[in-house]
Amino acid sequence: MLTKIHHAAIICSDYKTSRNFYVNILGLCVINEVYREERDSHKLDLEIGNAQIELFSFPNPPERPSYPEACGLRHLAFEVEDIAEVVSHMEQHGISVEPVRVDEWTGKKFTFFSDPDGLPLELYER
């Protein structure tokens, strides 16, 4: 039945800021970008490995209920080769990153940070 995750969709409050974050800071490659005038909405398709992130903008989207954590998608995790290198890159761009922890079950390093709208994102070392 299901074979893989095709994409994750994210709605942002400021398209220009979020586009810069996902493309220029996180380094995701643009597949396609359109502006849908009838909806006053941008849609940016970004490549991440064998999957995609769809970044949308809509006028006045409601805030995401995150804290305390709401029911639903908890966070989006990105696999990285060298977590220390990526954390350093993020901090050089002014992005606050939580202290790196070690997963007690896998022994792998991981940490969390947020996108411009406060969406929790994780780095997980391969």
From TrEMBL:
Protein origin, superkingdom: Bacteria
A Pfam family it matches: Glyoxalase
Domain VOC: 4-126
InterPro entries in alphabetical order: Fosfomycin_Res_Enzymes, Glyas_Bleomycin-R_OHBP_Dase, Glyas_Fos-R_dOase_dom, VOC_core, YwkD-like_dom
UniProt entry keywords in alphabetical sequence: Metal-binding
Coiled coil segments of this chain: none
Annotated NCBIfam families: PRK11478.1
Name of the protein: VOC family protein
Lineage: Bacteria, Bacillati, Bacillota, Bacilli, Bacillales
